[in-house]
Design a protein that fits this description.
The chain is α+β, with helices and mostly antiparallel strands. The longest helix is centred in the N-terminal third of the chain and has 39 residues. The radius of gyration is 29 Å and the shape is elongated. The termini are far apart. The N terminus is likely disordered.
Length: about 290
């Protein structure tokens, strides 16, 4: 082999190896950069809720994108600026976001306002009403069976710490309510005409004992149907959460939780402790301003 050719060959080989090495490094770096961009794009959005009692720093969950994006939109439009925390209940929650609360008169009833639309429910298993949780307010099941959220009203959970026995009682109450719902649907079913006739007969008798006996007869049917849909049972995670950190466990599964407080729970506590009227509205207005900080 010609020496000159050999030198060129070795030089080209070295260059090729270095090129491959650089190309490999470039691919790795591009991969890391892409991951960083992807992670940054999916990082949780942060907001600052400012009040006269201090600031509350909150983050929104990516698991509830409809609520997250709607909140971002409303904050960018400054809808929340100068609205009130119009409903506060100690050891429960503080609620705000009603557009009607802006410049509302002291006697005005609040809590029915919104942007003119609802948000589909995003009730996620494993996301609970722990202390500091941020959730969407909504109308009751009787007019809102799909549990759709208010377009703007939200609440921040203050809650309290529960004993295991209290959680047992909540479980029992929730399952009784589920059974009552099942019985209500059963009695309205076309094939239940005979049951409706018997119920009318029991009502005419007017005896409390007869009514209770009729309900007892229906209980096995309700239990069987409840077993199909599944009883409400607190998970070990929920029990640990509510007996240590605290919250409002009876709301789980009924309202969309879409974020949580990162800093400033002392401000939430201060707001929840304020004197209020018979409608739970603070006697002295508590205004908010919200801005996105990340």
């Amino acid at each position: 082999m010609n020496h000159y050719f050999f030198v060129i060959f070795r030089f080209n080989l070295v260059v090729m190896k270095r090129s491959i090495l650089y190309l490999g490094l470039a691919v790795v770096l591009l991969g890391l950069l892409s991951s960083f961009v992807f992670m940054s794009g999916n990082s949780e959005k942060m907001f600052l809720v400012s009040t006269k009692y201090g600031d509350i720093k909150i983050k929104l969950y990516n698991e509830t994108p409809l609520h997250r994006d709607n909140f971002i939109k409303l904050v960018s439009e400054k809808l929340y600026d100068d609205l009130l925390f119009h409903r506060v209940i100690s050891e429960f929650m503080i609620q705000g976001g009603d557009p009607d609360s802006k410049n509302a008169l002291p006697e005005a009833m609040l809590g029915n306002g919104g942007p003119g639309y609802n948000i589909p429910a995003e009730i996620i298993a494993g996301i609970y009403h722990k202390k500091g949780a941020i959730a969407a307010a909504r109308e009751g099941d009787n007019v809102n069976p799909k549990k759709e959220s208010s377009g703007s009203q939200f609440y921040i959970v203050q809650g309290k710490v529960f004993t295991p026995q209290e959680l047992d009682m909540i479980e029992s109450k929730k399952n009784i309510n589920l059974k009552n719902q099942i019985l209500g649907k059963l009695m309205m079913a076309p094939e239940s005409e005979s049951l409706r006739v018997r119920l009318d007969s029991v009502k005419k008798i007017g005896s409390q004992e007869s009514l209770m006996n009729f309900i007892k007869e229906l209980d096995p049917i309700a239990e069987k149907e409840l077993a199909k849909v599944g009883k409400f049972i607190f998970t070990p995670e929920q029990r640990k959460l509510y007996t240590t950190i605290g919250g409002t466990p009876h709301l789980d599964g009924n309202y969309t939780v879409f974020g949580e407080v990162v800093e400033g729970m002392n401000v939430v506590d201060s707001i929840a402790a304020q004197k209020k009227d018979k409608n739970d509205r603070p006697m002295v207005d508590i205004k908010m301003k919200i801005k996105q900080i990340k």
